[in-house]
Amino acid sequence: MDGDDKQKLDEIYDLVKDNNKMLHSVQSSRRWTKFWRAIYLLALIAITIVGYYYLEPYFKALQKTYTTLQQGVSEIQQAGNTMSEGASNISAIFKKQ
Predict the structure, then answer these.
(1) Residue 51 CA: distances (Å) to CA of 16, 40, 56, 64, 97
(2) Number of H helices, E strands in the chain
(3) Among 29, 51, 74, 84, whose Cα sits 20 to 30 Å from the Cα of 44?
């Protein structure tokens, strides 16, 4: 091996070392990114659960109000049906005379 080949080999070795350092840096960066992303997702899940825990009474009250409203609308519809039946009975009475 002559001097020129040894110099090229040393240059390649230095480039490989630099490349290895960069790859380790990228790998370390990816690990930290994964770690912080997991922390972020856990925080979102925790906030959602805690938020639901504190807002649950309001959700139940809202559900109760909705159910009451549905029952009121149903009663109004039944009253309307009864009134229309009564009106048809009254008109039938007047038609008979």
Answers:
(1) 52, 16, 8, 20, 69
(2) 1, 0
(3) 29
pTM: 0.53
pLDDT digits (tens, 9 = 90+) for 28-55: 999 999 999 999 999 999 999 999 999 9
Question: Taking Cα atoms as reference points, which of 39, 9, 88, 69 lies closest to residue 96?
Answer: 88
Q: How many residues does the chain have?
A: 97
Q: Report the alpha-carbon distance of residue 85 to residue 52 in Å, rounded.
A: 47
Q: Which residues contact 1 (CB under 8 A, 6 or more apart)?
A: 9
Name the burial class of residue 21, with classes exposed (0-12), middle (13-18) and buried (19+) by CB atoms within 10 angstroms of its CB: exposed
What amino acid occupies position 55?
Answer: L
E strand map for the chain = none
